[in-house]
Amino acid sequence: MIVYLNGQYLPIEQAHISPMDRGFLYGDAVYEVIRVYHGTPFRLQAHFDRLCESLAKMRMDCYPTVLEDVPKRLLAENGLGGQEALVYLQVTRGAAPARHHFFPAPETKATIYGMAWKFTPNPVWLNPGMTVITLGDDRWARCDIKTTALVPNVLGNQAARDAGAHEGIYVRDGALTEGTLSNVWGVFEGEVRTPPLTNYILPGIKRQLTLDLCRANGIPVREAPIFAHELAQAEELFISSTPYDIAPIHQVDGRVMPAERPVTKRLMRLFADCVAKETGA
């Protein structure tokens, strides 16, 4: 694998990062994951816009304009032209000469890293759909920042795997927030609903796209809380994320959802049309 590190493209075995790097020591870093369809990165500018927002919230004034050319170069370097892939980009606060909690000197250079790899979606995600469980939301209070400090998400996703599920959905104060790596949606009496953005929810790229698709195609949609006790009344449930796209939920906490999912299927078709239009996939 050829990766990008601080201006160089080199084999991953030759990519070395200082043990004093704050991304390594503290998780003091932000990242983006970009879906690639048939060799074309999807909604690349939206990902860079969110990266800028994360950097600003972290007070990391180092927008790496050089990264704008990195995804396509990584795809080419790794022979991923025309293929399904994922691109990962990460920016850390850099390596300081001493370990301390406060920010290092302003002249400390950010560490910028990127990689790309072939990605094959699991067909089960779409048919019969995702199996999910609900989890208590024990994460920190700035989930709106796409930071690499993901230990609660890792533990939550592993808890889902241990339960034989694909994904875990967090519940805070009785209301759903998001998945360990996805946004969550429900359909109630024909209306699509997703939790409103707060500091506990990441503004997903495909979350915004799903909202746009609903509004442009006459599908009733509302950003409003979904309470855990309402799940039994949901006509349909689905998730959206970079790897999952729009994926129906087949089972939640052991309860099988109705096999008919007309709203979700319509959104899946609209999403596929959007991808085809923007990427030629």
Task: Describe what you observe in this structure.
The chain is an alpha+beta fold. The protein has two domains: 2-118, D-amino Acid Aminotransferase, Chain A, domain 1, CATH 3.30.470; 124-279, D-amino Acid Aminotransferase, Chain A, domain 2 (Alpha-Beta Barrel), CATH 3.20.10. Helix content is 25%, strand content 29%. The protein has six helices and 15 strands. The strands form two sheets. Strands 7, 8, 9, 10, 11, 12, 13, 14 and 15 form a nine-stranded mixed β-sheet that branches. Helix 5 links the parallel strand 11 and strand 12 (221-223). The longest helix is centred in the last third of the chain and has 18 residues, at 262-279. The two termini are 24 Å apart.
Task: Report a brief summary of the structure.
This protein has helices at 22-26, 44-57, 70-77, 151-162, 205-216, 262-279, and strands at residues 2-5, 8-11, 29-37, 40-41, 85-92, 111-118, 130-136, 167-172, 175-179, 183-188, 191-194, 221-223, 236-241, 245-252, 255-256. By secondary structure, the protein is α+β, with helices and mostly antiparallel strands. It folds into 2 domains: 2-118, D-amino Acid Aminotransferase, Chain A, domain 1; 124-279, Alpha-Beta Barrel (D-amino Acid Aminotransferase, Chain A, domain 2), CATH 3.20.10.
